[in-house]
Amino acid sequence: MAKYRIAWLPGDGIGKDVAEAARIVLDRLDVDAEYIHGDIGWEFWRTEGEPLPKRTLDMMKETDCAFFAAITSKGRDVADAELLPELQGKGFVYRSPIVRMRQLLDLYICLRPCKAYPGNPLNYKDLIDLVVFRENTEGMYIGVEFPKVPEEFYAVKGTEKLPRDAAISLRAVTPGGSERIVRAAFEYAQKYGRKRVTAVHKANVLRQTDGVFMEAARKVAAEYPEIAFNNANIDAMGMWLLKDPYNYDVIVTTNLFGDIISDLCAQMVGGLGFGCSGNIGTDYAVFEPTHGSAPKYAGQYKVNPIATILAAKMMLDWLGETDKGAQLEAAVAEVIKEGKVRTYDMGGDSGTLEMAEAIAAKL
Ligand code: GGG
Predict the structure, then answer these.
(1) How many A from CA of 291 to the centre of ligand 1?
(2) Torsion angle (degrees, nearest 10) of CA 310, 313, 314, 320
(3) Which of 40, 93, 293 maximizes ligand 1 atoms within 8 Å of its Cβ, making it the mutation to test the pocket?
(4) What domains appear along the chain, each with residue ranges and CATH number?
(5) Following CA atoms 346, 347, 353, 359 in sequence, which dihedral angle do they give, to the nearest 10 degrees?
(6) Residue whose CA lies nearest to ligand 1 atom number 7
(7) pLDDT along the chain (363 residues), means of 10
(8) What is the pTM of this model?
């Protein structure tokens, strides 16, 4: 029996292309793992009314961790129209399978390292190396939404002028949820010798929810006096990051702000072709590239697999296979530095699998 059982979720679109690339390097590293395919993505929404079938969730619960590539996710209007005619009007509601996975498995940490590798023509300024901790289970993504204002809302002071046809999305931030993500950020900083943690919020406007987040952040920060702590409003943070990214080391924030700021950071180290992500809970984790399924490139084996390969490195580290993780990162760094194999985003014409083979050849 293999040492690890890994749920393998390629998803759809380019998810299948980049997952194949990740398997090339994992197989070359001879990871003692069994990979078990799981259905997830748009085709299962269309044909079953469920993009994350129960059989996939059940299978994941029997594995050590999951590796996920990408899925197509669309807004309400498009999603409903694309459901098979025989399923329409039967009460199926599209919900993001990624968000659901994170919530159902309590993967409260979304860890997104943003590290520039020397020689990448897409690097912004000098080498950047920072890490984003995004709260992954609450905030704006709890999924409590109303197509129009529920009548009972009008009992709340301040809602009198709210038009009845306003759609409502609720944001929930708990002291416990905030404390555990901030603590994870500080623990990471301590473990990896990072010097500073920056909490990002909009507490001057979102007084209740970000008030809770910042109270928790200050409380946890006081437990780590050796690590510098500061905070910034989300809007200013976007500006400061572009101006002077070297001022930041570990960033911790709530769900939606983390979603946005981590894309910004990924762009500074080469774009989504380099953005990798770990959704981590107490005893389970799902690793994925940050990017989506780019349907227009599906099956063309054209896109950059490095984000997905770096997600495989994160998975190896999390499994305790840190030597293999380090070898994989060194191989990625070498291929980038040599510059002989480059995908189209890097200005080259190498394909997805060619890049994976070049990395595997260094292992
Ligand atoms: N690998 C991440 C991915 O596939 N993202 C697509 C995406 O952002 N979908 C929005 C969502 O369903 O959460």
Answers:
(1) 7
(2) 180
(3) 293
(4) 1-115+271-363 (3.40.718.10)
(5) -50
(6) 292
(7) 97 98 98 98 96 98 98 89 93 93 97 97 94 98 94 90 94 98 98 97 97 98 98 97 96 98 96 97 97 96 98 98 98 98 98 98 98
(8) 0.96
